[in-house]
Amino acid sequence: MNQELPDVARHQVSNIRTPLEWVGMSGIDIPLSLSEPEGSAPLHASVEAQVNLPDVTVKGIHMSRIYRMLDGLSQQDSVTPVDLKAVLEQMVISHSDCGTDSARLVIEFKMLARRSALSTPGLAGWKAYPVKIEAVLQQGVLQLSAAVQVEYSSTCPCSAALARQLIASHFREHFSGEQLTTEVVSDWLETHATYATPHSQRSVASVQVSLGANEGGFGLMPLIDRTEQALATAVQTAVKRADEQAFALLNGQNLMYVEDAARRIQEALSEGYQGVEVSVRHLESLHPHDAVAYTKGF
C-alpha cells in the first residue's frame, strides 16, 4: 500500500510536440456565493477551468490541483472579481512546471429574482436569469466579463399598423354615413377592436459587459434591471387579469422591431458600462425563422 503510484503526466513525454491553448475541465458543479448589492446567496454553478500548455514536451496538466482550488472557492462566503483573479493566479503558479502563463474560468448559473406583478398588490413570483461570467488571466492581466439573458415580449410595429388599418376600414364600412355618439363608438370598439390583431412573440436579449478586476461585486442584478427597464416589456411571473391587461398596455405602447430592441439596450447601457455587446432574438410567430440583431462597441 506504500508503493508509489504511477504518474504518467509527469514521467512521460508527449510524442506529438504541439502547444495547446487551453486544457482543463468543464461541467464542474459547485455551490457559489457571488458578491452582489442585495447579498450573496448560494448558487448552483457549472464551471469550466483551464490553463494553457505551451511546453510541447509535457504530456498532461494537473487537473486535481485545479479542482481543489475551485472547491476552496466554493467555500467562500462572498466571491468577488478579486477572488477570481486570485484563483487564476494560483492555477498559473501550480502549473509552472508546464510553462503555463495563462488561465481561464467560465462560470454559468441561473440567478433567481423575485418580481412583483404589474398591478395586483402583494402578488409576486420568481424569475430565473441565465448568467455567464468569464475570467481570463494572460501574462498577469485579467479580462473579466459578465453576460446576462433577459426574456421580453415584442409586438411588431408593421403588424400593428396593418391591424389598425383593417380595423379603421371595418369601422368605416360599418358606420358609413351615420351620426355617431361616443357611447356607440365605445360599444363598437369593445366588440370589434380585435377585428385584426398584430403578432407578438417571446423574445430574448443577451447582454455582455466588461467588468473591472478590482470591483467589489459583479453588478448582475443592476445590469438585468437596466436591460429590462429599457425594453419595458419583460415577461411576467404571477399574473391576474389586471396584470395581463397592464402587460397588454405595455406591449401596445412599446412596439418593437428587433432593431428597436437592440438600440434601446445599447442606449441604456451607454453610460456606466464598457465593452458592451448586445444580441437580441425575436422568436417569430409569423415566420418559422427568427429575427436577430447584434451590436458591439462603445
Automatic annotation (TrEMBL):
UniProt key word Zinc: no
Gene: folE2
EC class (word): hydrolase
MF terms (GO), sorted A to Z: GTP cyclohydrolase I activity
Catalytic reaction(s) noted: GTP + H2O = 7,8-dihydroneopterin 3'-triphosphate + formate + H(+)
GO process annotations (BP): tetrahydrofolate biosynthetic process
Gene3D superfamilies assigned: Urate Oxidase
Name of protein: GTP cyclohydrolase FolE2
Pathway(s) where this gene product acts: Cofactor biosynthesis; 7,8-dihydroneopterin triphosphate biosynthesis; 7,8-dihydroneopterin triphosphate from GTP: step 1/1
UniProt function note: Converts GTP to 7,8-dihydroneopterin triphosphate.
A Pfam family that the UniProt record links to this protein: GCHY-1
EC numbers for this chain: 3.5.4.16
Native source species: Oceanospirillum linum
